[in-house]
């Protein structure tokens, strides 16, 4: 029986892991949300790891509001950088394998091909910078870790995401305007959840940086079109390409990850 701690347990990925954990009876999983476990509090992290022996820690906790990270970068760095560092230090002390979830936004988007695990990161917004600094801290502290970069994460039920936003707007509006200025790979949180649990179940020891997506590249406009088609809403809603995409944060034009 392997003992696993899941942080950020009330987010869409944490909930997706909870949905399928019964499929892994050899894993004893403890779920902790931000209301009961603040990864940015180093003493709280230390006390949690001192109180119980975890074989793995899956860090789903993150500050993911790209726009707000430009306005309030301190909070993004507190969670995405300092929080990751706190977990890495605790994992080192207790010989726990850390599985940390990162992002396609560690890249600048100027590459014409999909990004591989050996490409040099160069984030262009505060969210991406805070996530990269978390990655660097983990690599400096630990030898046994997985940093799993993913992109455009969504779930049809859990969390706040593009899929749910399009569905909500489609029920209320006759015209939707969506940008086609960026390209990436939408990733179902349920698929990522199973990928992570399989890393543990299969006792994978190929530690390091990994990329995981659902492997189909598209623009946000393409993704919106797919969502409307799958839900038989195309005839009810007019989808247009946004001419002026208003965003405070600079975003990578190409953030396709090669899994």
* Strands, count: 12
Percent of residues in beta strands: 15-25%
The overall average pLDDT, rounded, is: 96
In N-to-C order, the SSE pattern is EHEHEHHEHEEHEEEHEEHE
Q: Give the end-to-end Cα distance, rounded to a whole number of Å.
A: 29 Å
List the helices and strands and how they pair.
Blueprint: E1 2-7, H1 12-20, E2 27-32, H2 42-51, E3 56-59, H3 66-71, H4 73-94, E4 97-103, H5 126-141, E5 145-150, E6 153-154, H6 162-172, E7 175-178, E8 183-184, E9 187-188, H7 189-201, E10 208-211, E11 218-219, H8 220-230, E12 238-241
Parallel strand pairs: 1-2, 1-3, 3-4, 4-5, 5-10, 6-9, 7-12
Antiparallel strand pairs: 8-11
Helix pairs in contact: 1-7, 2-4, 4-5, 6-8
Structure description:
The chain is α/β, with parallel strands linked by helices and 259 residues long. Helices cover 38% and strands 19% of the residues. It is built from eight helices and twelve strands. It has helices spanning 12-20, 42-51, 66-71, 73-94, 126-141, 162-172, 189-201, 220-230; strands spanning 2-7, 27-32, 56-59, 97-103, 145-150, 153-154, 175-178, 183-184, 187-188, 208-211, 218-219, 238-241. The strands form four sheets. A six-stranded parallel β-sheet has the order 2-1-3-4-5-10, sandwiched between helices. Helix 5 links the parallel strand 4 and strand 5 (145-150). The longest helix is centred in the N-terminal third of the chain and has 22 residues, at 73-94. The chain is globular and about 55 Å long. The model has no long low-confidence stretch (mean pLDDT 96).
What attributes characterize this protein structure?
two-stranded parallel ribbon; single chain; 8 helices; 19% strand; alpha/beta; six-stranded parallel beta sheet; 259 residues
């Amino acid at each position: 029986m392997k003992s696993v701690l899941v942080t950020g347990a009330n987010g869409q990925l944490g909930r997706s892991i909870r949905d399928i954990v019964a499929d892994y009876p050899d894993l004893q999983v403890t779920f902790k949300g931000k209301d009961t476990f603040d990864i940015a509090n180093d003493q709280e992290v230390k006390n949690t790891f001192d109180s119980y022996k975890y074989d793995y820690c899956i860090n789903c906790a993150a500050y993911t509001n790209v726009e707000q990270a430009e306005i309030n970068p301190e909070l993004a760095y507190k969670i995405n950088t300092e929080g990751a560092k706190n977990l890495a230090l605790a994992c080192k002390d207790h010989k726990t394998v850390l599985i940390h979830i990162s992002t396609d936004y560690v890249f600048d988007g100027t590459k014409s091909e999909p990004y591989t695990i050996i490409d040099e990161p160069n984030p262009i917004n505060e969210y991406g910078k805070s996530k990269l600094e978390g990655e660097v801290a983990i690599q400096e502290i630990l030898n046994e870790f997985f940093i799993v970069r993913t992109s455009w994460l969504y779930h049809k039920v859990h969390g706040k995401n593009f899929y749910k936003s399009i569905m909500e707007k489609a029920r209320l509006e006759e015209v939707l305007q969506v940008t086609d200025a960026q390209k990436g790979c939408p990733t179902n949180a349920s698929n990522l959840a199973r990928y992570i649990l399989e890393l543990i179940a299969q006792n994978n020891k190929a530690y390091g940086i990994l990329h995981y997506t659902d492997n189909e590249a598209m623009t946000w406009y393409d993704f919106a079109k797919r969502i409307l088609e799958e839900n038989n809403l195309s005839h009810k809603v007019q989808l247009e390409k946004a001419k002026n995409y208003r965003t405070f944060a600079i975003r990578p034009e190409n953030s396709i990850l090669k899994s």
